[in-house]
Amino acid sequence: MNLRIANWHLSAKLLVIAVAMFGFGYAMIPIYRAICEVTGIGLMTPKDKEAADFARNTQVDTSRQIVVEFDANSRGTWLFKPKVASLTVHPGELATVVYELSSTVPRVTAGQAIPSYAPDGSGKFFRKLECFCFRQQTLQPNEIREFPVVFIVDPKLPADVGTITLSYTFFEVAGQGNAPGASPGNPRGT
């Protein structure tokens, strides 16, 4: 009888451990996403699905001007830079800036741009309608391409903010550009 009770306790403990392990594995997904968000690793910048409607329905605030500064950093085999250092825009005004990306190697490469904003918190007022950061980019050997960023600064930007800096860091995505048959529309060669 004591052996049965001991076996039942052991089975119950193993069941609790199995359930706890499953729960921990299930919880790892949001934990992983949170770590990626904090570190900026492995994230695709989501497209703002409401930005186009926002741009059509927003009034331009001509009483105020915002200086938007552009910056670029690259990690890997590219030269990456904005065509202009800054633009002066009115909140609510649709604007476009162009970035130039050049591959410096004789092989296909793929990369992902991750944006950051200064001052802290200004990113939620910087609405992008079009951006190369929404998806990975593949460049052919020694290719040079230009990418527009179409944006609007939300008129709800706090009045004490007169300058926003948009900075992109462009990272090489390992193994994405080197696949046989890789092309701009088919970076994995599948």
What is the topological layout?
Blueprint (H helix, E strand, L loop, with lengths): L1 H38 L11 H6 L9 E10 L2 E5 L3 E4 L4 E10 L5 E10 L7 E5 L6 E3 L4 E10 L9 E10 L18
Parallel strand pairs: 1-9
Antiparallel strand pairs: 1-3, 2-4, 4-8, 5-7, 5-9, 6-8
Task: Provide a descriptive summary of the structure in words.
This protein is of the alpha+beta class. It folds into two domains: 1-39; 51-172, Ctag/Cox11 (Pfam 04442) (Sandwich), CATH 2.60.370.10. Helices cover 23% and strands 35% of the residues. It has two helices and nine strands. It has helices at residues 2-39, 51-56; strands at residues 66-75, 78-82, 86-89, 94-103, 109-118, 126-130, 137-139, 144-153, 163-172. The strands form two sheets. It has a five-stranded mixed beta sheet with strand order 3-1-9-5-7, with no helix packed on it. A four-stranded antiparallel beta sheet has the order 2-4-8-6. The longest helix is centred in the first third of the chain and has 38 residues, at 2-39. The chain is elongated and about 85 Å long.
Defining key terms:
190 residues, 2 domains, four-stranded antiparallel β-sheet, 23% helix, five-stranded mixed β-sheet, disordered C terminus, alpha+beta, elongated, Ctag/Cox11 (Pfam 04442)
Could you write a compact summary of the structure shown?
The chain is an alpha+beta fold. The chain has helices at 2-39, 51-56; strands spanning 66-75, 78-82, 86-89, 94-103, 109-118, 126-130, 137-139, 144-153, 163-172.
